[in-house]
Amino acid sequence: MDYELIVIGGGPAGLAAAYAAWAKGLRRVLILERDRELGGILNQCIHNGFGLHRFKEELTGPEYAGRYIEMLKATGVEAKTDTMVLRITQDKCVSFLNPVDGYRTVRAEAVILAMGCRERTRGAISIPGARCSGIFTAGTAQRFLNIEGYLVGKRVVILGSGDIGLIMARRMTLEGAKVLACVELMPYSGGLNRNIVQCLRDYDIPLYLSHTVTDIVGKQRLERITISAVDADRRPIPGTELSFDCDTLLLSVGLVPENELSRQMDVEMDRRTNGPVVYENMETGVEGVFACGNVVHVHDLVDFVSEESSRAGEAAARYILEGETAKEPLLTVENGSAVSYTVPQRIRPAGVDKNVKLFFRVNRVFGKAVIRVRSGETQIACFKREHMAPGEMESVILPKALLPQGGVLTVSAEEVEA
Amino acid sequence: MDDVIIIGCGVVGAACAYALSRYELNVTVLEAGSDIAAGTTKANSAIIHAGYDPVPGTDMAKMNLEGSAMAEDICRRLDVPYERVGSLVLAFDAADLQCLQTLLERGQMNGVEGLKLLSGEEARAMEPNVSGQVQGALWAPTAAIINPWEYCLAMAETAVKNGVRLHRNCRVTDIRREQDGFLLTTTGGEFTAKYLINAAGVYADAVHELIGEKEFTIRPSRGEYYLLDKCEGQRVRHVIFQCPGKEGKGVLVAPTVHGNLIVGPTAGPCVPEDVSNTAEGLRQVCERAVKSVPTIAFRENIRNFAGVRAASDVPDFIVRESRSVPGFFQAAGICSPGLSAAPAIAKRLTELLSRSGLELHEKARYDDSRRRLRFTRLTEGEKNELIAKDSRFGRVICRCETVTEGEIVACLHTPIPPCSVNGVKRRVGAGMGRCQGGFCGPRVQEIIARELHMDPVDVMLEEKGSYILTGETKGGGARGL
C-alpha cells in the first residue's frame, strides 16, 4: 500500500481533513491538488469574514488557508500541487497526472473526496441573447481581479445574489467599476444577509428581486442587457423590461458539487445535493471512501467546511486504525416539510460518538419558526429559530441518546403562529 | 499574381484550398475574420448526411452523396473525429409514414446505400430512448457525425502545409477586373489573381456583386441549439431526425464526436451573422425534441448557440461560374447539406477551373496527412514518454476535457495558429466542457499571451473588439498572467 490516506483536493476541505487524519495518528497521508497552490478558492477570496467560528477571529481567505497550510507544514503530510486526478477505483487506486511524476497510479487504504464545487454557467440557465465577450461567472472574474491582477469591465450587472456575486459587486466597485444592479430570480436573496448589507446596500447598488436577464446584446463585447420581472412560476412578464448599458455581466447563479470522479467510481449520489450520500462520519456508500466540504453539499461558511472535513479526516483515521463501522442499525434521514436536503443522509448509531450534527437548508424564507426532528410519527427533538432562509445553511445537534435504533428520521421546518 | 484566390475559409473554402493544393498552382485564401472555421462551419448540427433529403437530380443530391463518400476518407487521412453512427428519421403518424416512403424512394434514386424502413418496435429496439409514439422509422446506416470545425481546420492546414497562403483579417471590399485577372482590395491589403472562388457564405451575394450583376440573393436562416453535458451523451446512439417540414430537416437529437448530446435546430430568417439565441427559439427546440426523445435532461445543458445557414433564393447549391463575370466561380447558397457536400463542391469547382483554362499539374511531392496529438487517447506508457520529453504535457489546463498545456502550446505553433481563446478551444477543446472555460479561460489566455508574445489584455475571446480584460487593477497588480 502506497499511502494510508489520499485526499483528493487541497482546498479548505482537503486541508482540514488531512490535518485531522494526521492528528489522529495517520502517518502516510497524501494531498493531490490540481491548482498551483494549496488553499483552493480561498486564495482568491481576499475579503475578510473567514474564521470567526474556527479561529475566533476575522481573517481573509488567503489568511485562513495560510493557517491550515502552516499547521500542515508541521506534520509529515505530503502534498502534490499542479496535479490532476483522472480516476479513482473502488479499491482506492488513484491515477493522477502532473509535470513531475507524469501519469501515475497509487493505492491507499482510504480516500477522502474533497474536490469542492464549480459555478453554474450561462448554459445551465439558458440565458438568451448574443454570445459576446464580457460575460463571466463571478468566480472567474474574481480570479482575474484578485489572483491575476486584471479588471474585467467597467459597467457591471450581476445576475444572482449568491455570495460570490455580492462580494464581487463590492470588489468591482472598489476597483472603480460602476455596478448598476444585482438581479435575483427568486423573491429573496441567495446570499448571506451580511453580504447584502455590506456589499450592496453600503454602496447603493440596487437589488432587483424576482427579476432575471432576458436579453443580451453585443456584437463583440457586451453592450446592453435587458432584465424582466418574473411571475410566481419564474417566467418573464412581458412589458416589465428594463435595459442597462453595460460591458460586463457577472453570473452568480449557484454552485454545483464537482462529482465527476465520484460518479465515475460509482459512489451513490443524492439528487438533492448533487453530492455523495454520506453517513454520520462522512463516509460514502463505498467503504473507506469519505467525502467532505462543498463536494458533499454547498456551504456558506468555510468554518463549517473545516469542521465537517475534520470529522471526515478523523473518521478516515479511525477506519484505518480501528476498522469499519458496524452497518446495523441504520437510520435514514429524509426531508420533512419546507426542507430541501439533509446531510448526513444516513446515520449508523454505532458510529456516533456523543452526538450527530445534521445540516440542512429550508426551501423558503421563515420568520419565527420551529425545526422538528421526528422518528416516524414521534417527535424526538425540536429547535426554535428567529429567522431562516434558503441562503443560510441550518444545523441541529442530536444527542446520541435521542437516536432511535433504525427507521426514518425526518427534519421539517414550520412557521410559529405570532 | 496568384492563379486562384479563394474568398472565405469556412468548410467550403477550406475544401477548395485542399483540393487545389495538390496542383502546381499559386493559391491564396482570404478570410474576413480573425480565424477560419468560425462562421456557419462552427455552428451547425455536425452531421454528414446520408443523402435521402435532397430532390433527385439536383446538385445538392449529387454533391451530398459524393461529399459524404469522400468525407470518411479525408477524416481518416487528416485525423478528424468522424463516426459513422447512422441516422433514424422517426414517423409519428400516417402522414409521417408516407413521408418516410418518399424519403426512401428519393434516397434510392440518389443512390443512398442501406436505407431500410423499420417498425416502431424495431426503431425502439435500436434506440431505446425514442418515444413510445414512434410508428416507424427510416434507417440510414451511412449518416455520420463529425467535428465540423476540425474538418475545416484540417483541410486548410494541409493546404497551407502544401504551399497555399492563408491571410486572415482580410475582408474583401472591392473587386476589379485587370487585364489578365482580378485586383482585390481587402482590409488587409491588395491581392491579384487570374481566377476567383467565392466561398463567402452568408456574404456570398454581396461579394459577387462587388463586380458582378445580381444573380442570387442569400437568405440567411438561423438555427438554435442546445449542447448537453457528457452525462447526457449516451441518451441516443444514432442521429435522430423527425420528418422534414417546410422549415428544413426539423429538430434532431444526436450524439457528438466529443461525447455530448446536441439538440436542435430551429429555422428562421435573420440578418447575416446574427447568432443570438432567443427565448422562443430555445423553447421550440425543447418542445420539438422531447417529441422524439422524451427523457432528454435539458437541465444538463452546458451551452446554447445559434448558427446561420447561408441559404439562397435558388432551391439548389449555386456551384458555377458567374454569368456576368467570367473567371469568377461561385460556391454560394451552401445551406444544409453543405458540410456533407463540401469536398464534392471543391471537386466540381476544380473541374470548372480546369475547363476554363487553368492547367492542373499534380505536385511531385504532396503531404496529404495530418496528425493532432490528443493526450487522453494515448496509452499510459505513451503519456509518460511524452511528459519525460516535455513536462507541459503533464499539466492539465482544461479540467473538464483533460486538455494539457503541451497540447495548447502545440496548437499555437500549427500551420494556422489560433490567436483567440475561442480559437484555442476549436483546436484542442479547452473550454468546451461543462464549466465552459470558467476555470481554464484565464490559463488559456495566459498561455496565448506567453507563446505569441502578446499583452494578456490584447488576447480576445474571438474577433477584434471581443476583449476579455479592460486593464490592470489599481496599482498595476498584474503579474503578467
Features:
heterodimer; A: alpha/beta; FAD/NAD(P)-binding domain; Immunoglobulin-like; seven-stranded mixed beta sheet; five-stranded parallel beta sheet; B: 481 residues; alpha+beta; D-Amino Acid Oxidase, Chain A, domain 2; Arc Repressor Mutant, subunit A; eight-stranded mixed beta sheet; 29% helix; globular
CATH architecture of the largest domain in chain B: 3-Layer(bba) Sandwich
The CATH top-level class label of the largest domain in chain B: Alpha Beta
Q: List how many beta strands of chain A DSSP finds.
A: 30
Number of separate helices of chain B: 12
The rough form of chain B would be described as globular
**Low-pLDDT residue spans of chain B:** none
Rounded to the nearest angstrom, the distance between the terminal CA atoms of chain A is: 61 Å
Low-confidence parts of chain A, pLDDT < 50 over ≥5 residues?
A: none
Q: In angstroms, what is the radius of gyration of chain A?
A: 22 Å
Which structural class should the secondary elements of chain A be placed in? Answer: alpha/beta
CATH homology-level superfamily of the largest domain in chain A: FAD/NAD(P)-binding domain
What CATH architecture of the largest domain in chain A would you give?
3-Layer(bba) Sandwich
